[in-house]
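retry 2 of 3: previous attempt timed out while embedding flavin-adenine dinucleotide. Reduced batch size to 1 and resubmitted. Inputs unchanged:
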Amino acid sequence: MNGHDRYSRSASRKTTLRLAKESLLMSTTPNIAIVGAGPGGLTLARVLHVRGIRSTLFERDSHALARPQGGTLDLDAASGQFALDQAGLMGEFRHLARYEDQGMRILDKHAQAHFDHPGDAADDRPEIDRTQLRDLLLDSLPQDFVQWGHELQKARPSEEGTYDLLFENANGRPFDLVVGADGAWSKIRPLVSSYKPQYTGVTIIEFGIDDIDARYPSLSQLVGHGNLAAYGDDAKALIAQRNANAHVRVYAAMRMPEGWAGQHFNFSNPGEVREKLLSLYGDWAPELKDLIRLSSDRIQPLSLYALPVGHRWTNRTGITLLGDAAHLMSPYGGSGVNNAMRDAAELGRLLSESNDWREAVRIYELEMFERVLDSARDASHGIATALSHMQLEIAVGEMQAILG
Ligand SMILES: Cc1cc2nc3c(=O)[nH]c(=O)nc-3n(C[C@H](O)[C@H](O)[C@H](O)COP(=O)(O)OP(=O)(O)OC[C@H]3O[C@@H](n4cnc5c(N)ncnc54)[C@H](O)[C@@H]3O)c2cc1C
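retry 2 succeeded.
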């Protein structure tokens, strides 16, 4: 064997080794796309980032302030806070969280109190506004990390086993793993499941009161520091939640047919909506009706949908779901965002700890299906009994069991 032969054999061994290493690396670190920059998608991106794994995050909103993010969220120690801890953000969270706003008050429609827990800063489900949570997560990612203005139309499987993402205005490069964190009406879910969210029978009309402490001190006192829920015997409720900066968000919840709000209210005329709501709540106590009368003009309907309890699918390589995309549940369990963030933390951890990402996703799914079962059952039970004639007794009983 001459020198040239020896050189070319050693060069070819090196090339083979390099290719083997590259292929091992490719099998251990997939090219990851996350669709949806809600609390779930952002938490996953952040957990992967702190663990040194790259991902690309696509969001349909054109920028972070494109739309209001919604009300206050209470983050549970075992899920929402656990995820923030995994994301290295508990310090910042403690700074923003409102530990003082964990109160719960239950009234009947005559404003008679049946349960009153003033809130204790030692309770461990502190509140944070959704916008603050989103900003906390966004600020923890590198600048320009989120690909704003990318509304996914479809993920298309390719012959190589990857997925091409088709957006309204652009097509993304192929990805090994696509995580659908795109909420209730996920465009990724149809790749693994044929289920569609079903209407729960409950419609909410959402509005708010700004600067309540200074402008309406007695109403502010009625709401207290946390949640006020007032239940009628007529399939109606008013739920008021204190947000940051003396803002109170109010939900008028009613059991109504799907599409009812759009047919009966003209939301471009807030004054008329308020008048109609006031007549619907005609025999309610004046101080409770003030929540409607004094609201600002930002009024919108929300129909509540849910996926079936126990929703699951057969693992499909390269596709998975988290949060509402995987297990949309009614807000009557108060755990949707908490579950979305816990999913993200677990998926991020498993992907970073395993050298077989396909197996990591399989394990994530099996554990997640089990983990969310109790919350999905609670949320389903909550919405089934909500707005029944027994709702007041049920809500008081549940609160006494939880808070004593
Ligand atoms: C009235 C109400 C009150 C609630 N209160 C609570 C509470 O107190 N506690 C709690 O734990 N949960 C609560 N929830 C539930 C909670 O809001 C959700 O469970 C949570 O937001 C789910 O997070 P997510 O990241 O999975 O989805 P989302 O928050 O829905 O985020 C999905 C993201 O994907 C983006 N997206 C959607 N489609 C596309 C697309 N095609 N292409 C690109 N991007 C897309 C969206 O713009 C959005 O940014 C409440 C829900 C409602 C309706």
